[in-house]
Prior knowledge:
The structure holds two protein chains of two kinds. Chain A is an alpha/beta fold. Chain A has one domain: 3-Layer(aba) Sandwich (Rossmann fold). Chain A contains eight helices and twelve strands. In chain A, the strands form three sheets. A six-stranded mixed sheet of chain A has the order 6-9-10-3-11-12, sandwiched between helices. The longest helix of chain A has 16 residues, at 180-195. Chain B is mainly beta. Chain B has one domain (4-346). Chain B has a 17-stranded mixed sheet that branches. The A-B interface holds A 54-57, 77-79, 81-83, 87-88, 90, 93-100, 103-104, 107-108, 111-112, 143-144, 160, 164 and B 1-2, 304, 335, 339-341, 343-352, 354, 358-365.
Amino acid sequence: xxxxxxxxxxxSVEAENGAREILKGVDLTVKQGETHAxxxxxxxxxxxxAYSLAGHPKYTITGGTVTLDGEDVLEMSVxxxxxxxxxxAMQYPVEVPGVSVSNFLRTSATAIRGEAPKxxxxxxxxxxxxxxxxxDPAFAERNVNEGFSGGEKKRHEILQLELLQPKIAILxxxxxxxxxxxxxxxxxxVNRVRETGEVGTLLITHYTRILRYIKPDFVHVFxxxxxxxxGGAELADQLENEGYDKYVKGGATA
Amino acid sequence: xxxxxxxxxGSTTAGAIAVxxxxxxxxxxxxxxxxDVADFPVPHGREEEWRxxxxxxxxxxxxxxxxxxxxxxxxxxxxxxxxxxxxERGDERIGKAGxxxxxxxxxAFSSFAKAxxxxxxxxxxxxxxxxxxLHGEGGTTFGHxxxxxKPFAEAIIxxxxxxxxxxxxxxxILVGDGAKVTFxxxxxxxxTAVHTSQHNALxxxxxxxxxxxxxxxxxxxxxxxxxxxxxxxxxxxxxxxxFTDAGQHQEHRLxxxxxxxxxxxxxxxxxxxxxQDAHAxxxxxxxxxxxxxGTDTYEMNRNLVLTDGARVDSVPNLEIETxxxxxxxxxxxxxxxxxxxxxxxxxxxxxxxxxxxxVVRGFFAELVQQIGVDDIEERLIAKIEAELxxxx
Lengths: 254, 392
């Protein structure tokens, strides 16, 4: 069973006046089949955790360990992590001019699966995944994220999640900027992947809204660069009613 | 493509659309066009037409010190029906398509020994390209070639430059009424070569002309692809593709002069740059004269900067002397393949070198498909792959 173990993770970024520590000792274990919601106020370090796990060069790991089934994730390059089974659905996916969605998806699937998917089954696979996410087939011929609306970008991220079938899916504020319909469609996509029982999900969000569609097994409150409190789904209800005030007060940076 | 905010430091992407009674395209040159090199002052580098060019690397082509002391191996494969002549200076076909516009082009004109004239007779439709292979074997050479494609003939012409040397040579392309010509010039030189050339196309009534300029090699390459119209209804398509590596200077200076009514022109140049001091210059001038009613023109330059240390100067310029046109526009953009794009592709399992290849292939793909000469398209794709291999 795939397990992602994060132990005492410290991460800093280069700021104008030297390195600034953002993650201050994160401990978290995500197992295949589990869904963990990470909630927290702006600036608490949620996204830093997501990007650090994916290996973004902007973040420097200053301490701690991350392993996937015992393998040292921090030693891997960005693409090696993806091939090992770590997937990050990004909050702000970038445009890649000149590269069509269909070419991108196939190149990516080839890299992740270790061999080129058979063309006939691949075309069907992409088509049905796009239909389920209510994406126009013409989408496949557009350049990656170029001129996509916010909702289209998020659907495109979840399309990749469905096609690449990772062991660990990190969803970074996938709900932000989505209207109710889009949120439902995107959440259904995430749930299809979860229902396979093959993926461990790390759902990073500012709002409780998405948790009505994607039921978490665990909820963690992120504040001041570490997990301040953990609990079950009921913790989300408490946050819905009380907000983050009690975590932000007492020295935590907002 | 990412627009202005992505222009690397030190680059310019200036552009202008001027509606003027008198052309500044002509007046901002230091001297009017002439066949005589003595009519041009020796450039000092601050002139508008020389300000991007490293004069010291021209090997004396600009100041009269270059002497013809080199060898250029030439091979011409012409399909049946095509005549190839070596003619003396003074032949009336030489220079008919255009006059040298700068000192280097005039130097080439003043210095060639004999010109080559390739003629495609009237109504002859060639099913094989005319191929001119020029292989430099060192030293300085001058030349002049005229392609005279008679009315209603159809031809594909490929000039292929390889090897080393300093080469100053102009090319005239006479496109007869109703003729259809594709002219391809490949600059696949060794990295030490210097090449300057003015391509003059004179497009006949209802004729169509496609120019394809492909520049990969050379220490310094400076080309002037130019088009004028001999009658109404002509169409010009000018495609260009360059891949500028560390230390290379590749400059393409285009001028389309719309001097006849109801003509079209479409210019698309795309370049990728990589490595320290890779420098690409693109000047795209389009002039719509008062007589050129019904003109339809568009020009575009796109650059993709793959590494730090490269520089692009891209200057589109459109001058319109009549309002009675169908359309006129231009676009220029320089984008970077940046760390965020690389991260995104890598985060989907794609290794860094493969990611770069994906982006560059995509950038050029559409343009390559428009060339319409199979072996050139294949060679181009192979060449782009080789350039990318070199970068990793």
